[in-house]
């Protein structure tokens, strides 16, 4: 009996081929979760992530419907497509969760973040910090003889770029709100 020959470059499709057929590449996703605005709901959502070892890159939450007592949680997380699908399915099973939308896969969305930067310095560093703030459309919200506090709004990438440029100019503190996101167009998410 002759052995089975497979042409070079061809792949075998056997029932015994146990190699995974899914992607193991990690991706960042923005999830919009509409929940009941009640004590303990945020803790249950966060507990889902911490209990399973999932990381949260950004988290924002606020009440969006006063009459219906509903809040919107925006979570930015990273994982393989399988992990992201698991997260969405598990979020959907929480009793107080009304809707889970993955803004990353549902089409174009708008993401913004607010950040405050405290930059200390004198002389040329001070002048350069103001010049860069102007380029990035950051506002001066506090000023002393030794420091500035800049306020900037934009994409997370814009905030990161501004932070990188402010570092050598005397960046002392940074506070970020986390991502707020909405789907673009007429489609409504959570």
Automatic annotation (TrEMBL):
CDD domains: ACT_AHAS. Pathway: Amino-acid biosynthesis; L-valine biosynthesis; L-valine from pyruvate: step 1/4; Amino-acid biosynthesis; L-isoleucine biosynthesis; L-isoleucine from 2-oxobutanoate: step 1/4. Pfam families: ACT_AHAS_ss, ALS_ss_C. Keywords: Amino-acid biosynthesis, Branched-chain amino acid biosynthesis, Transferase. The keyword Metal-binding does not apply. It catalyses: 2 pyruvate + H(+) = (2S)-2-acetolactate + CO2. The keyword Mitochondrion does not apply. It comes from the Bacteria. InterPro entries: Acetalactate_synth_ssu, Acetolactate_synth/TF_NikR_C, Acetolactate_synth_ssu_C, ACT-like_dom_sf, ACT_dom, AHAS_ACT, AHAS_small-like_ACT. One of its GO terms (molecular function) is acetolactate synthase regulator activity. GO terms for biological process: isoleucine biosynthetic process; L-valine biosynthetic process. Belongs to the acetolactate synthase small subunit family. This is Acetolactate synthase small subunit. It comes from Yoonia rhodophyticola. The lineage of its organism: Bacteria, Pseudomonadati, Pseudomonadota, Alphaproteobacteria, Rhodobacterales.
